[in-house]
Amino acid sequence: MAMNGEILTEIPNGIAVNILASAGASVSKVRGVHGGALKVAVRAAPEKGKANAEIEEVLAEFFGVSRKSVSVVGGVTSRNKRVEVAGVSMAAARERIGKG
Prior knowledge:
6 strands; about 40% strand; Conserved Hypothetical Protein Mth637, Chain: A; single chain; alpha+beta; 2 helices; six-stranded mixed beta sheet
């Protein structure tokens, strides 16, 4: 996982995003930038992949893509995750993160 201070990395079909996950929250949403990661809070418990699935759903809505376009690819059992989002350009992702 590239934790070099950059939240986003361009990949061939879209972007990869460094995520700081927070499970068991009262509301599922993107909470902004925290260090070199996008902080995502989800209501689901961190068990049996439930929180990861909800993170994918929250990010799909946040970036305006289908749920199938989002995949946790690193840090599956960690708070620090790497998520790939297909169909989103770096420019669009930066703009969306900037608007929070």
